Amino acid sequence: MDIRAKKIILLGVAVLLAGVAQAQRPFRLPASVLREMARRNVSLEAPAAAVLSSAEQAAQNQALQKNLLLSYKQAQEIQQSLQTPFMCQIQPTKKLSVSSPAFFKTPAIQLYPSVPYLQTPKQLTQYFLTQNNLLAEKEQQRMSGSLNSLVQQAPLLKEQAALAKQPKNKIEWLASYIPSQVNTLFVGEMHGFPEIQQALSRLLELLRAQRPNQTILLFSEFLYEDFIWTPYHDPASHPFGKVWKTALDQRIISVGLEPSFVKDDPLFFEYKDKEGNIYSSSVWSSLEGMRLRNERYNQVLQRYRQIYPEALFVVYTGANHSQYTSLFSLSKPLPADKTFVVSLYPSKRLAKMPANFLIGRRRPFFTSIMGEFDWATGGTFPQQVLYWQDKTSAHTAGFDVQLKLSTEDSQLLP
User: Fold this and answer.
1) Phi and psi for 238 in degrees, rounded to 5?
2) Could you tell me which residues come within 8 angstroms of residue 244 by beta carbon, excluding any fewer than 6 positions away?
3) pLDDT tens digits, residue range 211-253?
4) Which residues pair with 315 in a beta bridge?
5) Which residue, among 319, 295, 310, 315, has the nearest Cα to 397 in the 3D structure?
6) Which of 127, 236, 277, 320 is 20 to 30 A from 247, alpha carbon to alpha carbon?
7) pLDDT (tens digit, 9 = 90+) per residue, 130-187?
8) What whole-number distance in Å separates Cα of residue 293 and Cα of residue 320?
């Protein structure tokens, strides 16, 4: 092995070990180390091609495992301190589910290009799970800040909600309500409800009627990154095929957002809730999974915005990707006057609630409580159509418009 590369790798191991004492933050090389490496003209990418000895691999694995266990303990403590667990996506974990493959197979450089010391699938897996645990503190802070804002704004939100029109045709009304200067429209949904897809298809038709000469692009997590739907694709071949066909019919370009690593690594991790019940969840719906995915979504959107500066972007994802209050919000960093967030939910859904926390049994029930806003406000905003008079209220609630759609609403669509 090249001596310089070996020194860099050993330095990386030392930094990882030192990072155990600072487990609140994701691992980064200290600025002093970066300056020294720059002075010596040392490439950060050099370790990626190096082959570690067995002893070096063992030392690095040990450091990563130690960080993982420490971060797991810290996340558990935060989870136990939560007063509103339904609102906070903290899922302490230290291993993948037994039903998953043992490790990630995506190359580490694709997920963490700035962390060159991850040499094996095992190390990448350890690092990912650690990063997810470390985000528990940020998620706790986000939830606390969101609840505080809601408490302060609640009287004003109630006043505005009481004045909100309840139109019979919700999608026709929505299309007319979106300001003409908006160039990025986020449509966030609760997955699995066909009435939402039908509503989006109708919205695309109305947007084209309102903006006959403007370029419109539809971006979605339901297509893989940079995939473009064409007339040669069969709508019956895709669960959202009718949406893509409508877009084509309306001269709207459908572009994929979802990185290929989501498809390549269909992994699940194991976690416990506050009562100690064991569950599993997709790594890509975890805090770290959402961070990595939204990071890539942003890169795609920025790249296309350079090509189409005057276009209307319609960004169709799950609501947690797009709402202003989300931890890694796609919408919040954009110019407020040109950004608009719509959240689409069913009017009711079948959920499951623990019937006995001690033994973890669950019973089904129907509920009209949908997204985080409903949970935070205890379902005290019963309106099917919610919208606000100012952007401050929208940023507090997480959306500009929230619609709850029923099967009867889909019958109103042409």
Assistant:
1) -135, 140
2) 218, 223, 229, 233, 235, 238, 254
3) 999 999 999 999 999 999 999 999 999 999 999 999 999 999 9
4) 186, 219
5) 319
6) 320
7) 999 999 999 999 999 999 999 999 999 999 999 999 999 999 999 999 999 999 999 9
8) 12
DSSP secondary structure code for residue 49 in this structure: G
> Residue holding tokens 């919040």?
332
Nearest to 300 by CA among 225, 216, 215, 217: 225
Tokens at residue 37, please? Answer: 């490496």
Q: What is the pTM of this model?
A: 0.84
SS3 label, residue 342:
strand
In DSSP terms, 184 is beta-bridged to 313, 339
| Helix, strand, coil fractions of the chain, as percent rounded to 5 | 50, 15, 35
Amino acid at 217: L
If we measure between CA atoms, which residue out of 122, 79, 104 comes closest to residue 271?
A: 79
Residue 198 has, within 13 A of its CA and on its CB side, a CA count of 15
For residue 348, the one-letter residue type is K
State the CB neighbour count (10 A cutoff) for residue 386.
22
Cβ pair 24, 74 in contact under 8 A: yes
Count Cβ atoms below 10 Å from residue 326 Cβ, excluding itself: 23
Q: How does residue 85 score in pLDDT terms, banded at 50, 70 and 90?
A: low
Strand 268-272 vs strand 278-282: parallel, antiparallel, or unpaired? antiparallel
Give the pLDDT score at 283: 96
The DSSP letter of residue 204 is: H
CB 268 within 8 A of CB 280: yes
Q: Of 168, 358, 391, which is closest to residue 276 (Cα–Cα)?
A: 358
